Amino acid sequence: MNAFYGVSFCPVLHKFCMASNKGTHFICLGSTDHINSNFYEVIRLSFLGKIQEAIALTDYQWLMFYPCLYFFAMWDAFKEAGGGGEKNF
Predict the structure, then answer these.
(1) What is the dihedral of CA 42, 1, 29, 78, to 10 degrees?
(2) What whole-number percentage of the chain has pLDDT above 70?
(3) Coil, strand or helix: which one is 9?
(4) Quick one: angle between helices 65-80 and 9-16, nearest 10?
(5) How many CB atoms sit inside 10 A of residue 77's CB?
(6) How far apart are CA 27 and CA 86, in angstroms?
(7) pLDDT in tens, 56-83
(8) Long-range contacts of 23-31, Cβ-Cβ distance < 8 Å, separation of 24 or more
(9) What is the per-residue pLDDT for 49?
């Protein structure tokens, strides 16, 4: 469970900060992405030293979608918190 929160920290914050619908959607999208990219199996194989097998199993189009989703969740949380309005530097 700890790894889940580490990987999906921003979507989970949406869930706790009164944007529960957004948080739920971000968590579901992130989980779908990890399942479709074989993320957990790839990590397991790499820990076992089966690097070539892990590379062959990876679906890179799904795997590279997750950073986009994660950074969008961060940007959305920043905007929801009122960030980016006035520059004070």
Answers:
(1) -120
(2) 71
(3) helix
(4) 30
(5) 19
(6) 30
(7) 999 999 888 888 888 888 888 788 777 7
(8) 26/69, 26/73, 29/69, 30/66, 30/69, 30/70
(9) 95
86: left (phi over 0), alpha (psi -120 to 50) or beta: beta
CA–CA distance, 1 with 67 (Å, rounded to integer) = 20
3-state secondary structure of 45: helix
Residue with tokens 């989980």: 31
Q: How far apart are CA 51 and CA 34, in angstroms?
A: 18
The candidate with the shortest Cα–Cα distance to 43, out of 13, 21, 63, is: 63
